[in-house]
Every structure is written in structure tokens, then in C-alpha cells.
Amino acid sequence: MKTARPPFPLGRILFTPGAIDALIRANQDVHNFLNRHMNGDWGDLPDEDRVENEFSLEHGFRILSSYATAAGEKLWAITEADRSATTLLLPEEY
Fold this sequence. Notes:
Distance between the termini: 33 Å
Number of helices: 3
Number of strands: 4
Strand content: 15-25%
Shape: globular
Strand order of the largest sheet: 1-4-3-2
Structural class: alpha+beta
């Protein structure tokens, strides 16, 4: 069982045009993805990126999550190292 930890701050929430379009196509609420990201559910990341996120939580680096929308599109959530902002975007918009 995963131990609970306080969520990290998301800062300002930003969306790229592609992320907005993907959420509309999937008819999904952004809060689901933001809550998963903030609570340490990194989505579809390889193990090395999951380990990097855990390290980043402890040492104040950028945090990345990757999710699939209901329409099958990949959506990333990236929280900046200083926790000033979290951006939802498509990988090709990075």
C-alpha cells in the first residue's frame, strides 16, 4: 500500500491549445488528471521516470506525469521545479 503524503502545490494551472482540444475530444474533466498528478499517480511512465519523480519531490525538481485520455491521446502534466506552475500539454507541444 502506498503511503499518503501531502500533495505538492501545482501553482498556476496552464493549458496548451492541444491539451484543451484533447480534453474536449475525450469529454474529460481536467481535474481528474490534475488530482492524479498532484497525488503521485504518475500515469504511464517508465520506472526510471517514476524514480526521477520521487527524487524530484524530495529535492525540488520538475515533476512529469503522462496520461492517456479516453480518446487514446497522450497528455502530459509538468510541474515546474519551483512549483510556480503546472502545464498540461501534448508531448508534441513540448
